[in-house]
Write a structure and sequence with these properties.
Number of strands: 0
Shape: elongated
Oligomer: single chain
Strand content: under 5%
Order of helices and strands: HHH
Distance between the termini: 39 Å
Radius of gyration: 21 Å
């Protein structure tokens, strides 16, 4: 016997729009975007980690906290940018 969730998912699958599968070029572009944004994050992480270490070496807890917050903000911003770019690539099949 199927659960209510499984039944609902089946109905959604039947009634939902069918998306075209991604082309090889789109899959390659998505992989490239992942690589580019991982690189961007690595660069920012190295830079900000150095800033954090300097702040900690000086004993400046406020500056260290600001750098930690900036690290989190930068990671979130880059992840969002990457997902927006990926969505543009995915929409190419639906457009």
């Amino acid at each position: 016997m199927k659960s209510a969730y499984e039944l609902a998912m089946e109905r959604l699958d039947k009634s939902g729009p069918r998306e075209k599968p991604l082309s090889a070029a789109q899959k390659a572009r998505l992989a490239e975007l992942d690589k580019v944004y991982k690189g961007k994050w690595a660069e920012r992480q190295v830079f900000l980690t150095e800033q954090l270490e300097k702040a900690l070496a000086k004993g400046d807890a406020d500056e260290a906290e600001q750098v930690r917050v900036q690290l989190a903000r930068e990671k979130t911003r880059l992840e969002e940018e990457c997902e927006e770019e990926k969505e543009r690539v995915r929409r190419e099949t639906r457009g």
